[in-house]
Amino acid sequence: MSAIASRSMARPPEKGVFPLDHFGECKQISQDYLKCLENHDGNPQGCMELARVYLNCRMDKNLMAKQEMHELGMEEAPTPAAPPLAAAAAAATDAAAAEPGGQK
Predict the structure, then answer these.
(1) I want to staple 64 with a disulfide (CB 3.0 to 4.6 A). Which of 4, 18, 43, 78 is the partner?
(2) pTM here?
(3) What are residue 35's phi and psi, to 5 degrees?
(4) Number of other residues whose CB lies within 10 A of the CB of residue 79
(5) In angstroms, rounded to a whole number, what is the distance separating the alpha carbons of residues 29 and 3?
(6) DSSP secondary-structure letter at 11?
(7) 37 and 65 in contact (C-beta within 8 Å)?
(8) Pick the residue with more confidence: 75 or 97?
(9) Within 10 A of 54 (CB to CB), how many other CB atoms are there?
């Protein structure tokens, strides 16, 4: 009787069913991701960019529904920070332009 009870508690996958990549359209990215996992001892944190590329490939090829990365449990891709010297130079240029009489 317990086997029947455990079956009734099973839940469907959260994202539902999606097509397999029968034509291998995203196969190379998938293989690169798996190699990355091997190189990082199974830790997916070091392979997040490849995971994003793989998911985008699947979405672009209509192998899964298009969704925002945060809806898939991933943070948005980090934006590169401006180098400190470039930011300081831009601030100095803005400050000089704001002075009365313009730049000197």
Answers:
(1) 18
(2) 0.58
(3) -65, -40
(4) 6
(5) 40
(6) -
(7) no
(8) 75
(9) 17
